[in-house]
Amino acid sequence: MSSHRSPSNLDQVVLQARRAREEREKGYRERALKMYPWVCGRCAREFTHKNLRELTVHHRDHNHDNNPSDGSNWELLCLYCHDNEHSRYIDSDYGDHSADTTKSAATHNPFANLANMLKDKK
After folding, report:
1. Which of 11, 37, 40, 100 could form a disulfide with 45 if both were Cys (CB 3.0 to 4.6 A apart)?
2. With contact defined as beta carbons under 8 Å apart, do 54 and 82 qualify?
3. Per-run averaged pLDDT (10 residues), the chain, 122 residues
4. Closest CA to 78 of 28, 29, 24, 42
5. Phi, psi of 62 (to 5 degrees)
6. What is the spatial distance between Cα 8 and Cα 20, in angstroms, rounded to a whole number?
């Protein structure tokens, strides 16, 4: 018996996962739009029914499964501010090497003898 799924089964699993995510997002999005004014929490751009699709729900802790009923993990952000927030989060995560204790301080100083080298040029 093969452990590989046929492409049609895999396609069905992916499709079901996408639908479940869309349903989950629709639920907290609708709740957040009822709870908060339609204004971007960063740039203060205001939204109407006409452009509401450009207003997103951002999870403050970046966990899309953390959806408390009081909305404390959400903020409404426009598409641009939301993208910027996620870029900053990814950049900070990428640049965070505080847990890396294997690095040691540099011991080579390429300019240590510079003064003597310049004296020899005169």
Report:
1. 40
2. no
3. 64 88 80 94 96 94 90 95 86 56 55 71 62
4. 42
5. 65, 20
6. 18
